[in-house]
Protein: NADP-dependent oxidoreductase
Amino acid sequence: MSNTNRAWRVGQPNDDTVGGMALVRGHFERSEADKPSPGEGQLVVKAEYFSPDAMNHAWVRGMPGKFDPLAPGTIMRGGVAGTVVESRNPAFPEGTRVTGFLDWADYSLSDATDHMGVPLQVIPEGIETHSGLVTLGMSGVCAWLGLFHFSHPKPGDDILVSGASGAIGSIVGQLVPLVGGRAIGIAGGPEKCAAALDAGFHAMVDYKAPDLVGQIAEACPDGVNIFFDNVGGDLLSSALVNMAHFSQIMICGGTAHYGAHPAPIYNHIHLAMQSVNMRGFFYFDHVDLWGEARARLGEFLKSGRMREWMDIAEGFDATPDAALAGFSGGTKGRKLVRLN
Structure:
């Protein structure tokens, strides 16, 4: 076990592209220090995977009402899956596999909670380490919360999913058939649409092709019963025109709004015209539901009713490019970085 602790710290970009981007390459500064040692009640987690996602954007730019941006020079934070290699906490003996929002470093020092103040999540036996960041991580839990806890789909519902080739959308598309619904995905380009169909979607809409409103209408001729939205912007505006009477819109994310120039949303009058219920949820507001979600998702995964769609970058130094790919449509499924 190396005593060197590589880490990514928050940098200060000098180029003018930062104004319109969530993250740029200059936000990532590589550093090295000594491996931390645990004090009483603490433990050290050796990272095996990083999980780039919207939280990296949030920590760099800040999230109003949730947390302030990280100061330059601070170790960057994000999803981590790894193994406890030193422990002075009896609840987390050495060898325990855990996930949490920890330092993007080889080693994270923890008091058994992560940077969001949430207890570290133990990866169950029989579940792969990376699955703690995919099906049993924020992606899978958000998909489960949005469908089973908030929107309650019925057999026969047409459920439209934006970001269908992404981390959360690709899981939603596999959960919909389990309740007898019909999953219609939105993705960009023929390649991603074909991959999403192979992953379990019944039909696909290509937002890069002409007439997005018309494409949705053709895929859902009786209207959309539930729109599970991970993007916002034009995709939400186009879905609004196609919502069925007494339908639902579930706001899980908004990648179209993460930059400095958020995309506008139009057609909101259809919320009234069609009596549509639109609501959102924040993952960390529902920690009390994570256990149930992880248990159910683990059952689906072990039984083969779900499979994982991953895009894995290799090596610690691949982290910046992997994180930036999530904001340019350059990923398929859950983007992970496997450390070496």
Q: What stands out?
A: The first strand starts at residue 4 and ends at 10. Confidence is low (pLDDT under 50) at residues 16-20. The radius of gyration is 20 Å. The chain is about 25% helix and 25% strand.
